[in-house]
Amino acid sequence: MKRPGLSDRGLAKRPKATRKEVFLAEMDAATPWERLCACIEPYYPKAGKGRRPYPLETMLRISFMQHWFNYADEAMEDALYDMPVLARFAGLDIAVDTIPDATTILRFRHLLERHGLCERLFAEVATHLAEKGLLLRRGTIVDATLIQAPPSTKNRERKRDPQMSQTKKGNQWHFGMKVHIGVDSNSGLVHTVVGTTAKVPDNKVLDELLHGDEKEILGDKAYTSNERNLSSSDPERGPIWAFPYKKPKGGELPQWKRDINRRLSALRAIVEHPFRVVKRQFGYVKVRYRGLAKNVAHQMRLFMLANLYLVRRSLCTS
Q1: Residue 123 lies in a domain
Q2: Among 270, 260, 254, 262, which Cα is nearest to 240's?
Q3: 94 with 160, same domain?
Q4: Which residues cross the membrane (predicted)?
């Protein structure tokens, strides 16, 4: 039987980069590491006070890989041992360096949550993208998506998460929370993230999703009201509320209104791109924690990274 050599351990030089390596290289070039580390550095443990901490950028890179590949803390620790490409991205050499364990990774996440750093990191990336001319903030498209939560009561409290709730979409009931986002209408990048329990109506969160300087605001029928609709908009006094016309009860919309709704749908389609990245590319389809606060902080980081993912090639060439 052939004995395993260096090539079998993944240490030999390969003529072709894998897709994971290409992805990590692109995200490495697109992420403003120095700016993000500067936000966290005042709160990060200093050497000389107990056990020597890992480098801040190493822990931040590990945290981001958790989101990109949907790893739990224990799975992230194992992946650093199993996949040298991930260890190299974190700046670690598994033959020499000690690998952060699951508890260390968990404590870093708690540090971000405890000091409200997830919001600061999200804002820092948004500022970075605005400086690059990628986030224009002239118009906003609003939308929301449901994130499922475990309905099981097989836990210590013998009950479901009290901060989650049920809502009906179509003919199906869902238990969990909602993520509401405000997206730049030009670039499709997210500038605002708000999390609520699932039963909160979309239009109740509309004002929180706006930055106040919009020329036009787009959304689906859930945001239409008597005061905020296309017919009542006055560009001289405020933004254009480009929400679709609702079909009257027991009646049908005239053809010209259906044509307008179809055009508005095409304009709103860009709001689905961040949801696609978070749910499909990053694999986030269920809440990971109990309570709204931890999950909203998690979603802040996900949409921050989704913004970088959507414009990674533009950032790499700029």
Answers
A1: no
A2: 260
A3: no
A4: none
The residues, any chain, with a CB within 8 Å of residue 313's CB and separated by 6 or more, are: 26
Domain span including residue 200 = 137-310
Residue 215 sits in the same domain as residue 258: yes
Give the list of residues 6+ apart from residue 274 with CB closer than 8 angstroms, or none.
Answer: 181, 183, 188, 189, 190, 303, 306, 307, 310
Can you give the pLDDT of all 318 residues of the chain as single tens digits?
A: 445 444 444 555 667 888 999 999 999 999 999 999 999 999 999 877 667 889 999 999 999 999 999 999 999 999 999 999 999 999 998 888 899 999 999 999 999 999 999 999 999 999 999 999 998 888 999 999 999 998 888 777 788 889 999 998 888 999 999 999 999 999 999 999 999 999 999 999 999 999 988 899 999 988 988 888 888 777 777 788 899 988 888 888 889 989 999 999 999 999 999 999 999 999 999 999 999 999 999 999 999 999 999 999 988 876
Q: What's the pTM? A: 0.91
Specify whether 211 is located in the same domain as 257: yes
Place of tokens 């692109």: 26
Question: Do 84 and 152 reside in the same domain of the chain?
Answer: no
The token duo for 225 is 């009201």
> How many domains, the chain?
2
